[in-house]
Amino acid sequence: MPYLKTNGDVIELYLGTEGVELDESNPENRFRLDWLDTVTALLDDVADAAKPVIITATGKYFSNGLDTDYVFANPTGLPAYLDRVHALYTTVLTLPVPTIAALNGHAFGAGAMLALCADHRLMRTERGFWSLPEAALNMPFTRGMAALVRTRISDAAATEAMLTSRRYGADDAASAGIVEEAVAAAELVDRATEVATARAALAGPNLALIKRGLRTPLLDDLAVPTPSSLL
Fold it and tell me: Which CATH number covers residue 41?
């Protein structure tokens, strides 16, 4: 399960399980219900600590997004489940601390959108893709998810990513403005720590107020309950 590490004035939130590169029960860091509970609780701890946070993982995946096993087994529960995902996005978007996403591997679908919630994004160059595969999978975007993509990256990048399901490597993602930096794997967390440390003095309630003001329309869209008619 996800866990926190403190590195001086910076907190690292790992989306997988401590001590292993891949969690056997959730190797792709999918948004299982217990995973969502744990990440949300850890983000509360981050907010209380008032230190910048780096969101990352180990192994092949940053996050492969929605728990499709749960989705297919619980179609009537899909709206409530997606509302939980939206709530996680809102939490990250409004944290009272600087947030840095360090993409160590694949970030697909809801996991790719989680990365977009961070204030600053870095992606390793040697391995991994950022992708929104919904069009290829014949899946719609919720209102909140579409607003998130549209708001956090340029219209041209959002249009291509959402309509073609393109897989972006780090250099292409940086060129498209999906991430701010493409970084070698060995330097990923160190560079994320540099960015986080430079912003540490900004942490506090005022930062949360600024984020809410900056992102009010997006937060409103994420707060709209998912209709049962989505699928």
Answer: 3.90.226.10
Reported as type and span, the H/E element at residue 131 is strand 130-131
- The neighbouring-strand residues paired with 11 are 6, 53
Q: How many CB atoms lie within 10 A of CB 102?
A: 28
Q: How far apart are CA 159 and CA 165, in angstroms?
A: 10
Lookup: tokens for 165: 């399901």
Helix (H) or strand (E) holding 100: strand 99-103
Q: DSSP assignment of 6-56, as one string? A: EETTEEEEESS-TT-SS-TTSTT--B-HHHHHHHHHHHHHHHHHT--EEEE
The CA distance from 20 to 195, in Å, is 26
What SS3 state is found at 182?
A: strand
Give 6-48 pLDDT, tens digit per residue: 999 999 999 999 888 888 889 999 999 999 999 999 999 999 9
Domain ranges, residue 218: 3-230
How large a percentage of the chain has pLDDT more than 70?
100
Q: How far is CA 68 from CA 64, 71, 72, 73, 115, in A?
A: 10, 5, 6, 8, 19
Question: What pTM, to 2 d.p., does this model score?
Answer: 0.97
Q: Strand, coil or helix: what is 64?
A: coil
As for how many domains the chain has, the answer is 1
Cα distances (Å, whole numbers) of residue 19 to 12, 16, 22, 92, 217: 14, 9, 9, 25, 40
Residue 90: band (very low, low, confident or very high) from pLDDT cuts 50, 70, 90: very high
